[in-house]
Amino acid sequence: MNLVQAHIYRGDSIPPEAHTKPLFISSCGHYVELNRELGAIRPEGRSDYQLLFVTEGYIYVKNCDGSETPIGAGSIAVFKPGMRQVYLCNPQENTSYYWVHFGGTQAESLLEQVGLSERFCYTNINFEDNLSSVYNMISEIRLRRKNYELQCCLHFCTMLNSICRDNSGASTSDSDIMRLMPALNAMERQMQTPYTIEDYAKMCLMSSCHFMHIFKKCTGFTAMQYKNRLTMERAKYLLTHSSMSVAEIALAVGFEDSAYFSKKFRSYFGFSPGKCRKA
Fold first, then answer.
1. Of 102, 114, 145, 176, which is most buried with the most CB atoms under 10 A?
2. pLDDT by residue (tens digit) across 172-214?
3. What is the pLDDT of residues 73-117, one digit of tens each?
4. So what's the pLDDT on residue 174?
């Protein structure tokens, strides 16, 4: 048996202030070719979340009624705070699995967003292509360089999103995304310029119709929906992180009329720019 693991918080000794963060990683690791009955016995669960990614063999989750639920290779077990965590491995099956303990105010929302809100999630993908992020997290925790906790969260989110995409069967190609880059860059860097769909299509050397089709396929949004999203998020950032006036921010994100900007901002977020600044 090989075991590779790292801890920021050991066991359930997580300080209360950690749970007020949007996301934090408690610990992570990888059990390789288990040749003895090993798992966890936590009838009362833990205060954080745990994800188990089974790559070989089976994990047998012991239910309260005495039954067992086998979780095989390519599947994920999700244990939420306070949920019973009792599972074992068969020493004859050379089981391997990765795990991550995590928590935070946005943890539940993150699981829902990537489609992992159910207790057991069955997939048909090869985790080995995605779970190198666990080793990146282990390295960050052991070295404890500046902002290592933030970097662990970034690795974790990247891993979950990659698994989500692979499991969804999405077929967006890198070449399509590269063809859109001139328009994507213009949307982000030249917000104050009133480009049309035709302008963006010409930047990408496409017809307007083909541009709109490729853009929706790659991003899930129409070009104008995507631009509006970027514009509103940039405006919100400037409202909360700068001393610029509402009129100045409106101009910076492409609105000559600050009243119209305020109307669009309220429609998008559900509150006014002034309320956003006071929050």
1. 102
2. 556 778 888 899 989 988 988 999 999 999 999 999 998 998 8
3. 888 889 999 999 999 888 777 888 899 999 999 999 999 988 888
4. 62
Identify the CATH number of the domain defined by range 2-168: 2.60.120.280
DSSP per residue, the chain: -EEEEEESS-TT---GGGGGSS-EEEEEEEEEEE-S---EEETT--SSEEEEEEEESEEEEEPTTS-EEEEETTEEEEE-TT--EEEEE-TTS-EEEEEEEEE-TTHHHHHHHTT--SSEEE--S-GGGTTHHHHHHHHHHHH--TTHHHHHHHHHHHHHHHHHHHHHT----HHHHHHHHHHHHHHHH-TTS---HHHHHHHTT--HHHHHHHHHHHHSS-HHHHHHHHHHHHHHHHHHH----HHHHHHHTT-S-HHHHHHHHHHHHSS-HHHHHH-
Q: What percentage of the chain has pLDDT greater than the value 70?
A: 91
Q: What is the pLDDT of residue 104?
A: 96
Residue 12 structure tokens = 């359930």
Inter-residue contact 261 to 250 (CB < 8 Å): yes
Question: Per CATH, which fold does 174-278 belong to?
Answer: Arc Repressor Mutant, subunit A (1.10.10)
Q: Crossing angle of helices 223-241/208-219, nearest 10°?
A: 60
Q: How far apart are the first and last CA of the chain?
A: 52
